[in-house]
Design goal:
Blueprint: H1 6-31, H2 38-65, H3 73-99, H4 107-130, H5 139-167, H6 171-204
């Protein structure tokens, strides 16, 4: 691997670490939820998202100047944007609690957030392997494991939505939690999209 190529892979690792930081912070916010502190929580989350944006911009700037890249320029750009999407959507989850003025956290929301953490932990491991994808013995199992966690999130999404329909008697509460669960599901999907993109890059380059 050319010396300059390491920048791209290091950027992906650093970007997924920020996604993981956002996911862990989301869990902390939900486990220590205080509706009176939600604006401060949002501010902290946005600072993480800003650092993630900076990594995406660093990637875009490097790709704009690069003559040769380790894999297709378009694939590197797409992967950078998809990793950034993970952090963006995790921030959006927390924003939903503010928008809907949620006062009390449902246990299923914490469980869902912890599954998002699991997905982000796996993304970090995946990106650490990506630099040596032609020789890695772990990368394919990590992609499969990410898919398994996403399927768990699908099941949790279905059961959570069903429970909401059966138990909620307040329209605004139902609307709020449907919106939150939809956004959490999107976070899980975003993690899987990153792993699918990695799998596609590997197929094209081996």
């Amino acid at each position: 691997m050319a010396k300059g190529d390491k920048f791209y892979f290091d950027n992906f690792v650093e970007s997924t670490e920020l996604s993981r930081e956002a996911a862990h912070y989301l869990v902390w916010c939900l486990e220590n939820y205080d509706a009176n502190q939600i604006e401060q929580m949002l501010s902290t989350m946005h600072e993480i998202e800003n650092r993630a944006d900076a990594k995406k911009h660093e990637m875009s700037a490097a790709l704009a100047k690069a003559f040769v890249t380790p894999v297709d320029r378009e694939d590197l750009d797409m992967l950078s944007h998809q990793i950034d999407d993970v952090t963006d959507i995790i921030e959006e989850v927390l924003q939903k609690f503010y928008i809907h003025d949620v006062k009390t956290i449902l246990p299923t929301a914490v469980a869902f957030a912890k599954n998002i953490v699991r997905s982000c932990d796996l993304l970090c491991a995946l990106m650490k392997e990506f630099e040596n994808f032609k020789r890695s013995k772990k990368i394919h199992s990590l992609i499969i494991e990410l898919n398994d966690v996403e399927e768990e999130c699908d099941k949790l999404y279905l059961s959570s939505m069903r429970d909401l329909t059966k138990t909620s008697r307040d329209v605004l509460t139902t609307v709020a939690w449907r919106d939150i669960y939809n956004c959490m599901e999107s976070s899980s999907d975003a993690c899987e999209h990153v792993s699918e993109c990695v799998g596609s890059v590997i197929m094209k380059n081996t």
